[in-house]
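Problem 12. The chain below contains 240 residues. Write out its predicted structure in token notation.
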Amino acid sequence: MNKTALITGASRRIGKAMALHLAAQGWNIVIHYNTSKGEALELSSTLSEKYPKQEFPVIKADLMYEGEVEKLIPAALKAVVSIGLLVNNASVFDKGSIEGSNMGLYNSQFQVNLKAPFILTRDFAKLCKKGSIINMVDTRVTQNKSNYAAYSLSKKGLWELTKMAALEFSPEIRVNAIAPGVSLAPEEEDESYLLKLAEEIPMKKPGGAAPILKSLDYILENDFLTGQLLFADGGENLGS
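Solution.
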């Protein structure tokens, strides 16, 4: 297995957790960021110091702009020669019902959450030829709640892209998805926000990053798995 991963949004939150986790297993990590330059450089420095034989280049790209997205994998390949894993992790998460959403909100959710992964999936297939793609979707793909309408639709689309790409690019490239639920609190909220949400799910507790990382490991270790979605959501997809 080619143990070099490109993780979008790798400098913070779940992306950072995945970067730290994979680096500890011997992976080189291409750390993508948009606005979190300081955090990306700090992560690269920390990982380089801890794992001096591995590579941790940092690359900026604003996923709102397709021209920047199209440059991301070529830039990564200049830094590390080859890539065996693409994790489409970066996303935007903005509230708005169907009626309450303007086109700016709609476009931002679809551009970052669906169009950018589409482009990166295409380019990974063209330029990297083989390996694995993991898309971070959301347990909301099983629901029709419209309080985050554009966001939810973009993630539903990403799950459909996962299956379509798995079929088109097999057997050289496996494509799977992970659906988190009550995992990490939004930056503007504290832990009590998560605990309140967790009261409504079967497992009655927030998951944190651990279930997501275990799902990541399972996908990477099971080379017969493609076109599948692992729910790391404490049963939230089952309904209340």
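Discussion. The CA atoms of residues 188 and 195 lie 15 Å apart. Students who got a different answer should revisit the alignment rule from Section 12.3.
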